Amino acid sequence: MTSDGTVIASISADKAHDAAGNGNPASSSTDNTVTYDTTNPDVTINQAATQADPTNASTIHFTAVFSEPVTGFDGSDVSLSGAAGATTAVVSGGPSTYDVAVKPAQPAKPAKPAKPAKPLARRRAAG
Ligand SMILES: [Ca+2]
Ligand SMILES: [Ca+2]
Predict the structure, then answer these.
(1) Neighbours of ion ligand 1 (CB under 5 A)
(2) Residue 48 included in any domain
(3) I need a labelling partner for 120 at 20 to 30 A (CA). Which of 58, 82, 98, 112 fits?
(4) Residue 89, domain member (yes or no)
């Protein structure tokens, strides 16, 4: 094979013969096409077209565009860096163009005060 593309197999009539000399008709198929693909999917990521910059919004959107449909791409596949300390990316969309929603690191929530234990039911004093 010399390039990426479809590979299609078919058999013309009279390529094989039975003992009586009858030749086959042309082949029929339900799916005789396979795509030969040796090209890696390139990817770009940029701030989304509608993303304000700078922004004070709590969610910041980027757009990842692959050069062909892909699977297996999720938030854990996006590397985040920068001074704002973003830690979480959520990926949606596809199969070629994905929205990457990034949330800045949340300030640690103050721990909830522990609930006081329920008082034990008082035992009735024996008469
Ligand atoms: Ca096929
Ligand atoms: Ca490919």
Answers:
(1) 31, 33
(2) yes
(3) 112
(4) yes
Q: Which tokens sit at 7?
A: 């590979």
Q: Model pTM greater than 0.85?
A: no
68 Cα–ligand 2 center, Å: 7
Residue 50 lies inside a defined structural domain of this protein? yes
Q: Nearest ligand, CA of residue 8? A: 1
CA distance 90 to 101: 5
Angular region, 94: left φ>0, alpha ψ -120 to 50, beta rest: left
Find the 6 Cα to ligand 1 centroid distance in Å.
9
Give SS3 for 36.
strand
pLDDT of 123 higher than 70: no
Q: Please write the tens of the pLDDT for every residue from 14-65.
A: 999 999 999 999 999 999 999 999 999 999 999 999 999 999 998 999 999 9
Instruction: Give the number of domains in the chain.
Output: 1
Range of the domain at 76: 43-103
